[in-house]
Specification:
membrane; DUF6773; flat; mainly alpha; transmembrane; 2 domains
């Protein structure tokens, strides 16, 4: 198929597509979280949403790590792992605590603290592993293509 756009238009289309992907990604994330945490929709009824969500996640993660990419504004490092892990922990812990409070769970503080510790350790571990893999892949690509 012959392209009908020039390089500038192609770049603009890619920016629009990227923005559209992130809008869909966060809308789907919010949909799943709200349904499961606040409306008690069984996870089994959300199989399609989960498949779409994980397909997007895996595509982005695999594509970035395969090419040794991290983000536009940072490189993989301990500071990034800590900041992103803490941010995710705060967000998910607030959602978890609100959902548990609405359900009238007893011992909310202890359960929430345990959840927060678990989420932080999980996020930090995953980010550190992916960051180290990404750095190794970037060094390998730099050696292959002679980038300095």
């Amino acid at each position: 198929m012959k392209k009908t756009v020039d390089e500038r238009q192609e770049l603009e289309l890619m920016k629009i597509e990227r923005a559209g992907f992130w809008v869909l990604f966060f809308a789907l994330t919010a949909d799943i979280l709200l349904k499961v945490l606040f409306f008690q929709v069984p996870v089994q009824e959300l199989i399609g949403e989960h498949i779409a969500f994980f397909a997007g996640c895996i595509t982005i993660i695999a594509g970035c790590t395969k090419r040794g990419l991290w983000t536009y504004y940072s490189v993989p490092c301990l500071r990034d792992y800590l900041v992103h892990s803490l941010a995710a922990t705060v967000i998910f812990t607030i959602l978890f605590a609100a959902a548990m409070a609405l359900r009238g769970v007893r011992h909310l503080a202890g359960i929430t603290l345990a959840f927060a510790v678990f989420i932080f350790l999980l996020m930090f571990g995953v980010l550190a592993a992916m960051g180290e893999y990404t750095k190794r892949k970037q060094r390998k690509l730099d050696d292959t293509y002679g980038d300095d």
